Amino acid sequence: MAVHGLPEKPNVEEFVRVFKNIESVQGGDIQPITPLSALLHTPEDAITLNLRLKFTVFERELAYFLTQNRDEFESVNELLPFQQLSLHTLGSAKLKKEYVLELLHYHGKRELYGQLKEWQIPAFPIKGNVLIEHGAPKGPKLGLVMNELKMVWAANQFDMSEPDLLGHLPAVLEKLDLARKS
């Protein structure tokens, strides 16, 4: 790692490609960290660069998010996976949506950017206390259960009621190995 925080051999080809993509997407402010992330090879490079440059929390998390997700989502051309990615978080879905919008900038996906920008994040139809009443664990593991149920909900086009989601709770608890043992 060079003194400036960038990798010894920054990914210049990716930077040029991303810069062209960013120029093609109109109608949104681009975070400066978005093209800078293209110079990085791995999420670990983003961490190292942050140690040198002391990004804001938003910039640090965005750089990490972009380097972590760019390859997997490069060839995705449907809105639903990006909507799901916006919800796949234990933190703020609104903030994660901003990261996903930057990922769309990164790849020059103008039409999907516009669609996701206009998309209103729907309210998740079930609360944590209801999950606890039906056997979900309290504390940090509840967030894991909720996140898995959000993925089920998203896979069903965000069109599931509380009873529908509760029907998936046993399978989610089993998947996360959180089912209560009698």
TrEMBL record:
Named cofactor requirement(s): Mg(2+)
UniProt keywords, alphabetically: Magnesium, Metal-binding, Nucleotidyltransferase, Transferase, tRNA processing
Top-level taxon of the source organism: Eukaryota
GO BP terms: mitochondrial tRNA 3'-end processing; tRNA 3'-terminal CCA addition
GO cellular component terms listed in the entry, alphabetical order: mitochondrion
The keyword Zinc is assigned to this record: no
Alphabetized InterPro entries for the sequence: Bact_CCA-adding_enz_type3_sf
GO molecular function: metal ion binding; nucleotidyltransferase activity; tRNA binding
The protein's name in its UniProt record: Uncharacterized protein
Species for this entry: Culex quinquefasciatus
